[in-house]
Description:
Layout: H1 7-27, H2 40-51, H3 61-64, H4 67-82, H5 84-95, H6 101-111, H7 119-149, H8 151-166, H9 185-200, H10 202-211, H11 219-243, H12 255-267, H13 284-296, H14 309-323, E1 330-331, E2 334-335, H15 338-365, H16 370-381, H17 402-417, H18 419-425
Helix pairs in contact: 1-2, 1-4, 1-6, 1-18, 2-4, 2-17, 4-5, 4-8, 5-6, 5-7, 7-8, 7-9, 8-9, 9-12, 10-11, 11-12, 11-13, 11-14, 13-16, 14-15, 15-16, 15-17, 16-17
Amino acid sequence: MIGRLSPSQILVFGFALTILIGAALLTLPFSSASGNHTPFIDALFMATSAVCVTGLIVVNTATHFSIFGQIIILALIQIGGLGFMTLATMMIFLVGRRVSIKEKLIQSEATGAFSFGDMVHFTVYILKITLLVEAMGAILLALRWCKEFGLVNGVFKAVFHSVSAFCNAGFSVFPSNLINYVLDPIVNLTITSLVIIGGIGYIVLKDVYLLKKFRKFSLHTKIVLITSIALLTAGTLVIFLLEKSNYATMGALTFKQKIMASYFHAVTPRTAGFNTVDISSLRYSTMFFVMFLMFIGASPGSTGGGIKTTTFAVLIASIFRTLKGKQEVNIFNRRIPGETMRKAFVIPILAFSWVSLITFILLYTENAQPIRLVFEVISAFSTVGLSAAQGTHLSLSSLFSSFGKLLISLTMFIGRVGPLTIGLAMIYKDQKEAFKYAEEQVTVG
């Protein structure tokens, strides 16, 4: 049965099985602080959010779950962030079995790598980088939180937030996320650094580490770095200008504190979901801009979601070349393949179509303000985890019916495994066309 499945189908089913196992564990009485069963729909939502490294919650991670439950969520975040096939490949490597071509294809699909010639070594590299960066982040956060919470509790919070940040999950074991640390430079800079490193992708990290000079980087790495820097710079500036006089968010902060808070919220929508200000109090214009950042998301082969920075860059370049009447798209003196250009158009269309469909359904089934509902759906699809729910509500999803929670869970799942992967999973076997029809022009526009 498994041998007949395509790599994409195995990837999808692997994530789904991990979610179901996680949900079953979270429903157990000793997973909750009260010792009571967690309703399955809520456990399923939380497990999906963790495995899909989203961060949307319907019960408070800090107060609802016991230490055991929080450890389960942490494990699901790590599995989801690395990709379950990364861990599976590592296990195969440890027991000495050769990795098959199909397994290498699955791993390549899960990590966004371009080839599978040395996939086992790449997997080992991924695990080394992950553990090293998470350990460094945990040490920095522990130095801050051990003074406040004691050694054991401080270390646990540091490890949890380091893993959550690097995996771009946005889960927090603080009841109000990181709002109490809006003025803390250590927490702000450590969390954002972990999010950025986890969000640019393992391929880029390897290029930067080995090649060091920009001119030697692959085209992929150059596009990721330039696009990420541009989005972070523009994001910080726009959020600062929009929110600097909003006393419900940043208005009472000093100039430097406003810059730090603006930078934090330019980083986390792509796609971590931590927040140091009340997201529900953002101006509508800021919410709209944050939705734009969330939709773009992180980079291929990373722990983040969204349509990806490279997709956005190639799409913009294609539009400009089309307006100039040019057919070929060249970036950094390299021509972009036609297949890549087609994907750059298809992925945003699929993403926008799914977000529109789910929003349309939820507008009918749930009672929510439209802009906040769209914000929630994009946050779920791009696996961000930010929510614009007003008052003391954990998220807008926490107010939804069971049907609404299922739709958001499905949206997180779709967003994590990728619209293109889902599409490929529906195709049982790649069949080449036996013939081609005659070509004829169609007037468009």
